[in-house]
Amino acid sequence: MSDKNMDFYRRLRRRITEQSLNSPAFDRVREFLLLAPDLFYLLIMLLKDETVERGDKLRIGAAVAYFISPIDLLPEAFLGLLGLADDIVVAAMILNPVIHKYPDAVDRHWAGERDLLELVKEILHRADQLVGQRVLSALRRLFG
After folding, report:
1. Which letter, b or e, does each residue of 72-100 get, where b requires 16 or more Cβ atoms within 10 Å of its Cβ?
2. Torsions phi, psi of 72, nearest 5?
3. How far is CA 38 from each of CA 8, 23, 88, 120, 141, rounded to the nearest angstrom?
4. Could you give the C-alpha distances from 40 to 22, 95, 133, in angstroms and in order?
5. Per-residue pLDDT reduced to its tens digit, 80-124
6. Long-range Cβ contact pairs of 75-81 (< 8 A, separation 24 or more)
7. Is the Cβ–Cβ distance between 83 and 90 less than 8 Å?
């Protein structure tokens, strides 16, 4: 991972773990927000993996760009950490087919503790609760 991406990963992990909001909205998505750094790391590592085809790398790269961009459907600048919810949903949308197509690459690079396929299915199942139906529809148009 490049120094710039590693810095993003570390800052993101630190912001989430140090968050001490007593907000019911934050509490509902806290477990998913804590996945953001690991999903970001996996996306970066899959971009570098030689076994992943170019077309799939383009989609993965789009998810990384969405993660890093300050301009997205739920901007962190206005929503704080809750703005990561759409980034997490985008990562799950992109990773869902990748998990099946490149299981060895995913296994090599997944640093999270939970089963990734189970996790992605759960995120996609709860996506409308995490980001709202309008945002989810827009994300599906962009990344689906």
Report:
1. bbbebeeeebbbbbbbbbbbbbbbeebbe
2. -150, -175
3. 12, 23, 10, 12, 25
4. 26, 11, 23
5. 777 889 999 999 999 999 999 999 999 999 988 889 999 999 999
6. 80/21, 81/15, 81/16, 81/19, 81/21, 81/26, 81/33
7. no
